[in-house]
Design brief:
Helices cover about 40% and strands about 20% of the residues. It is an alpha/beta fold. It folds into three domains: about 160 residues, Alpha-D-Glucose-1,6-Bisphosphate, subunit A, domain 3 (Alpha-D-Glucose-1,6-Bisphosphate, Chain A, domain 3, 3-Layer(aba) Sandwich), CATH 3.40.120.10; about 230 residues, 3-Layer(aba) Sandwich (Alpha-D-Glucose-1,6-Bisphosphate, Chain A, domain 3), CATH 3.40.120; about 90 residues, TATA-Binding Protein (2-Layer Sandwich), CATH 3.30.310. Helix 1 packs across helix 4, helix 5 runs parallel beside helix 7 and helix 14 crosses helix 15.
Length: about 475
């Protein structure tokens, strides 16, 4: 059906033709290329083995893909630490826990059951840079392979890093374990039949939270579309109401995205996840800075209220950051772009509007466990209903549209036309074209698809009608170009 090669890895549907789908041949080629570029990136004395961590989510194809990846790594002379069923953030942290040279995560994130992917990590447990990822792609395409001899094969060990990850979250000074426990919270968890069912209940138990779990069998047969969007979380909403729970928690199959349901069954909205966590952290930073006699405006890390998200994420993060006297920065879309800017700006918090929380105090990757620990600390500190917390945050609506084109050459023409039309506004061309309308507190972002002749259009405004009207205005401009 589909094979998508990108700088962050290789993703596709299982079976079919090599080069067109995610097949054993593609998996072996890509794993070899990762090893070849690992040696170039981190030179070692001859004969010294490299070590790579491999973790997988709960997909049906996970075991098959794991066998191929592990076997290919061994054939390249690389030692493997099999983390088994492990969330994406757990595998990322496992690279550091085990002092490995890299990691490969076997997950297609929120994609449906027929998909799987190889996501590639460096020795810090972070995604490869754009240049490093492209080098792996080029190597795989060259098919210039040379495997290790029998005396140089790698070795395999196994280790479950779940408890170490949980402890690292609990050790964070901003996760208030005692206050959460004292709050006596009841939550409903939906880990959508994947690895979240193995780690999230353990975390919640350690936090003293009463957890009711639905869709908890790790079968890879997702009970619903696994992307944690409101339209896919109706069962979670109903269960929250049924048990009079304080909130619902939804994670995607690899547990790097996080969304909440309010106590009344309404969506907290995934765009608000990062905004709420940032508000909590900035308030805590302000209190700590005050005890040291400094203002947040004058503060430097770790107190400075600096935040990062991508260009397609809610303006709410910027509003909250500026409310605390801080600075907000926007990156191109893509987690590696967000983490790069987080490092560059020494940000206290960052992430993506899809429910991805990145807290660099623990590691630079989206982590739903960290997000839950911080959000529940926020709920406990505020002593408010989750719906009231939502109402206290900046109020925006995002709508998502797309333009399908028969000719990809039209994409640049459309982007140029939009840029010209709104030249008097604040225009950002780092990733496509984003136009900020400061007076109306709204924006629209157009960016090309990496795989199809499509322009994706995200627009945000204080109301859904205003956001859609802005998108319609841009679509009309595109229509004139298409002619």
């Amino acid at each position: 059906m589909s094979l998508i090669k990108s700088i962050s890895g290789i993703r596709g549907t299982i079976g079919g033709e090599p080069g067109e789908n995610l097949t054993p041949i593609d998996i072996v080629k890509f794993t070899y290329a990762y090893c070849a570029k690992l040696r170039e990136r981190l030179p070692k004395p001859e004969g010294e083995h490299y070590k790579v961590v491999v973790g997988k989510d709960g997909r049906i194809s996970g075991g098959m893909v794991e066998d191929l990846v592990v076997g290919s790594l061994v054939a390249c002379g690389v030692d493997v630490v099999k983390a088994g069923f492990a969330s994406t953030p757990t595998t990322e942290m496992a690279v550091r826990f085990s002092k490995a040279d890299g990691g490969i995560i076997l997950t297609a994130s929120h994609n449906p059951r027929q998909w799987n992917a190889l996501k590639l990590l460096n020795e810090k447990g972070e995604f490869l840079t754009a240049a490093e990822g492209q080098a792996v792609l080029d190597c795989a395409d060259s098919e210039d392979f040379h495997f290790a001899g029998v005396d140089c094969l790698g070795h395999v060990s196994e280790h479950d890093f779940t408890d170490e990850h949980i402890q690292a979250v609990l050790d964070l000074k901003d996760v208030d374990e005692q206050s959460i426990s004292d709050a006596g919270l009841t939550v409903v968890l939906d880990p959508v039949n994947s690895v979240g069912a193995l780690i999230m209940p353990k975390l919640l138990e350690r936090l003293g939270v009463n957890c009711i779990t639905i869709n908890q069998e790790v079968t890879g047969e997702f009970a619903h579309n696994p992307e944690p969007l409101p339209r896919n979380l109706t069962e979670l909403s109903e269960t929250v109401i049924q048990y009079h729970a304080d909130l619902g928690i939804s994670v995607d199959p690899d547990v790097d995205r996080l969304a909440f349901i309010c106590e009344d069954g309404t969506p907290f909205v995934e765009e608000n996840t990062l905004v709420a966590v940032a508000d909590y952290l900035f308030e805590r930073a302000a209190k700590v800075a005050e005890t040291q006699g400094i203002s947040l405006e004058e503060a430097t890390a770790p107190f400075a209220p600096v935040s990062v998200s991508n260009l397609s994420s809610s303006r709410g993060l910027r509003d909250v950051t500026e409310r605390w006297g801080g600075k907000y920065f926007a990156s191109a879309v893509g987690e590696v772009n967000v983490t790069t800017l987080i490092h560059e700006k020494n940000a206290l918090i960052g992430g993506e509007g899809n429910g991805g929380v990145i807290f660099p105090a623990i590691h630079a990757g989206r982590d739903a466990m960290v997000g839950v620990g911080l959000f529940l600390s926020y709920v406990a500190a505020k002593k408010m209903k989750v719906s009231d917390i939502k109402a206290s945050l900046p109020q925006y609506s995002i709508v998502k549209n797309r333009i399908d084109l028969s000719d990809s050459a039209l994409i640049d023409k459309i982007l140029s036309a939009v840029k010209e039309r709104y030249s008097s506004e604040k225009v950002n061309t780092v990733d496509g074209v984003k136009v900020d309308f400061e007076e109306s507190r709204s924006w629209v972002h157009l960016r090309r698809s990496n795989t199809e002749p499509i322009i994706r259009i995200y627009s945000e405004a204080p109301t859904e009608d205003a956001a859609q009207a802005l998108a319609d205005e841009v679509i009309a401009i595109a229509g004139k170009v298409i002619g």
